[in-house]
Amino acid sequence: MLKAYSLLDLAPVVEGGSARDALVNSRDLAQHAERFGYQRFWMAEHHNSAGIASAATSVALGFVAEGTQSIRVGAAGVMLPNHSPLIIAEHYGTLASLYPDRIDLGLGRAPGTDGKTAYAIRRDNFRADESFPQDVQILQHYFDEGYNGIKAYPGNGMHVPLWILGSSLFGAQLAAALGLPYLFASHFAPDALDQALAVYREQFKPSAQLEEPYCGAAMNIFAADSDEEGRALMRGVMQGFIFLRRGQPGPLKPPVDDLNEIASPQEIMNAEHTMCESAVGTKATAQAFIERFLERTRADELVLTCHCYDHEARIKSFGIGAEILNSML
């Protein structure tokens, strides 16, 4: 049964705009989300991406938290192998000190970028993803009473809630073993969704943080006054995926009228599959899709995302999503 709904923002940089514009829009969106009733506002770590402004995720989250009053803000996620667990404990301990009881920390093991950029970030520690389970536990120690005689200041004793993010069975198994909440990235990696949630629930072991399994799933929402308007919003993101897979990332462009003008049938089919977990169209159309998704996944928390060119359309889409989900709580 649905317990909460939250929002994932990728701080989109649009063609003709700047990173500052994107981050100001993120804070504006968070203020709307707070009024709409969203429980959490998530931001994600991406690197070498001209279309996403949240690379320094903790800095971006601090800007958002300062502009809001009650909504929880968190990373979905920090790509932990890119960082020392101590540094992350200090960053998010600082946020938790400034904004008590409002900070969440989701952890992933992917680099959040391409291989060349990942090497530039990790350098001599390029295979750091192999120690991800151990690093999660070390981070837990830093938020408790320290590790190996070292304490995180701020961070020590603050017990910032940790989440495991994933798009495969690995993250589901790790979250279950550590007794942590789990979020599945089905908004762009849908294939293992059902199996991962089943594995997480079956293998879950209670922990000091969590007594029972708590799982969330992410989906796209492109809700508008008409189905065609919703499809246009989605086309803009699909064309972004197409350019990304060609090795041509960049700021978000206005959606084309017809993807066939810029892409092959195979490229379009791949983009459609990537975004198959998407509620697109009017409130009624979007609600029908969301109801089917929740019936199938039994997610405790639904994470909505709308990575689109038009900021006002994005706010409207999330507003419609909140109206739908408020009626289900």
Structure characteristics:
eight-stranded parallel barrel; TIM Barrel; single chain
Short description:
By secondary structure, the protein is an alpha/beta fold. The chain has eleven helices and nine strands. The protein is 43% helix and 15% strand.
Describe, in plain words, how this protein is organized in 3D.
- The protein has eleven helices and nine strands.
- By secondary structure, it is of the alpha/beta class.
- The chain has one domain (4-228, 278-326): Luciferase-like domain (TIM Barrel, Alpha-Beta Barrel), CATH 3.20.20.
- An eight-stranded parallel β-barrel has the order 1-2-3-4-5-6-7-9, surrounded by nine helices.
- Helix 1 crosses helix 2.
- The model has no long low-confidence stretch (mean pLDDT 94).
Tell me what portion of residues adopts beta-strand conformation. Answer: 15-25%
Q: Indicate the CATH topology.
A: TIM Barrel
CATH architectural label: Alpha-Beta Barrel
- What is the CA-based Rg, rounded? 19 Å
